[in-house]
Structure formats: C-alpha cells, structure tokens
Amino acid sequence: MWPIARLPLMPRLGYAAGFLVCAGLLGFAYYLQYYQGQDPCPLCILQRVAFMALMTVFLIAAIHGPGRGGAAAYGALLLLAAAVGAAIAARHVWLQHLPKDRIPECGPGLEYMLRKFSALKALEKILAGSGECAESGWRFLGVTIAGWSLLWLVLLGVFAIYLTLIALRKS
Q1: For residue 22, what is the enclosing H or E element?
Q2: What is the average per-residue pLDDT within 42-67?
Q3: Which of 42, 84, 96, 112 is least surrounded, with the fewest CB atoms within 10 Å of its CB?
Q4: pLDDT, tens digit, for every residue of 87-106?
Q5: DSSP single-letter state for residue 97
Q6: Which residues span the domain enclosing 158?
Q7: 28 falls within a domain
Q8: Cβ 75 vs Cβ 32: under 8 Å
C-alpha cells in the first residue's frame, strides 16, 4: 500500500482535496468566462454541472467522514458524476475535431431551449451539439477547455475510486 494511504485522515482529506480541485477548476472556468471573454456553450455548462455535482459530493463526504457503507455510496455518486461529465466532455472534444464541413449549425441558446422544450428534449438538442460547441477558443499546451475538462473528470473519477478503496480497507 502507498505510504500516503496510511495517513489516519486520508479519505476525509482526500474528499476535501477533491472539493478544492473542483472549486479551483470552476473558479478558473468563471475567470475565463468573465475576464477572458470565453462564453460557455451548452456542453460547457453541462460539464460545469458535473464539476458542481462532484464538488458537492466531495464536500459532503469530507464533512461526514463516512464509514464503509457511506464511502461506497459516495464513491458511486462521485464515479457517476465523473462518468457523465466525462461522456459530455468526450462528445465536446469529438465535435471540436470534426471537419469544418461536418460541424452542425449553431442552434438556439441554452436558456431558450430550456424554456421552449421539455428537459429531455432540451438535453437531446444540447448533446447533439452545435457550431458554437465546435469552436475551441482558449488552449493550454495545445489542449482545448473541453479536453482539459475531460482529463480532469477522468482523473477525479479515478481519484474517487482510490478514495473509496482506501475507505473500505480502513473500515
């Protein structure tokens, strides 16, 4: 077992670290939006919702300090949120790599879709993507925001599994 896993508060500190990572990523997303002019597309907003869900579960788990059953439940919720977010981010990355002639046309905004369509129909239209979702805008090390989002969601999902395994072994 890794030495860090022997720390007495590791699962609780790990949950707190997960919360801080999600809060930092969301903070950076809002910085890009409000100070760099990178308006989020509907798929970006859904990825933010996934990070918010992860952040919330990490915070509750850090405060709760769950036993075996709670750790399994929190781990399942964290993995579900990370997997859904990663699937959305993967779709977003795929849209960004389409040839120019295959990019869907820009559709209505998220607010309009949520007002005019049922939640399921709006989600279907959002996941279909639009031209604005295919734009890549800001990049770091050649990777788009959607690419970084995908990477972080996968890492957070793996971290949630790791924390769950540690918590289950300690109990």
Answers
A1: helix 10-35
A2: 90
A3: 112
A4: 989 888 877 766 566 555 55
A5: T
A6: 3-100+133-170
A7: yes
A8: no
> Is residue 111 assigned to a domain?
no
Distance CA 150, CA 167 (A): 26
Give the tokens for residue 24. Answer: 């930092």
Token pair in block for residue 94: 């795929």
**Of the candidates 81, 66, 82, the residue with the CA atom closest to the CA atom of residue 167:** 66
Which of 22, 71, 73, 68 has the alpha carbon at shortest distance from 48? 22
Cα separation, 153 vs 8, in Å, equals 26
* Inside any domain, residue 124: no
At residue 24, does pLDDT exceed 70?
yes
Work out the percent of the chain whose per-residue pLDDT is above 70: 69
Considering the entire predicted model, what is its pTM? 0.76
